[in-house]
Amino acid sequence: MNTKRTTAKTAAPTTTAAVLTLALLGTVFSTPAAAAPRQGDFTATGVKIHESYSTTSLARGHGNPGDGYTWMGGQANAEAVPCPDGSVKDHWTYVHNNRTGVEGYVSDCFIREY
């Protein structure tokens, strides 16, 4: 007499662990870590933080050495500004003054990145 054998197919105990491990690794390696925003400080006392990238725009506030700033963006090819060291820069950076909370544009002549 012919008897059909049926076997129960069960997952190996390591299958669940392997799937879980792959899922976790996929999460870890597929999501890039967010880069920290660039930081820096003001290089002179009373640096004007402007509404726009121009020395004639209204000043929202001032930055001083030790205040620190967080980089929020930049604008190239704007008004050229003569720097204290004799160079001329036409790049302005949109910053957040870490001490006062004021945000605005500052000529790159008066800031430095850490």
List keywords for this structure.
9 strands; two-stranded antiparallel ribbon; 16% helix; five-stranded antiparallel β-sheet; alpha+beta; 114 residues; 1 helix; single chain
Rg estimate, integer Å:
29 Å
End-to-end distance = 85 Å
Shape annotation: elongated
Q: List low-confidence stretches.
A: none
Strand order of the largest sheet: 8-7-4-1-9
Q: What is the residue-averaged pLDDT?
A: 83
Compute the number of helices. 1
Characterize the biggest β-sheet.
5 strands, antiparallel
Reading the helices and strands in chain order gives HEEEEEEEEE
Topology:
Layout lengths: L12 H18 L8 E4 L4 E4 L8 E5 L5 E7 L5 E2 L5 E2 L2 E6 L5 E5 L3 E3 L1
Antiparallel strand pairs: 1-4, 1-9, 2-3, 4-7, 5-6, 7-8
Characterization of the model:
There is one protein chain. The model has no long low-confidence stretch (mean pLDDT 83). The longest helix is centred in the N-terminal third of the chain and has 18 residues, at 13-30. With 114 residues, this protein is of the alpha+beta class. The protein has 1 helix and 9 strands.
Quick overview:
The chain is an alpha+beta fold and 114 residues long. 16% of the residues lie in helices and 33% in strands.
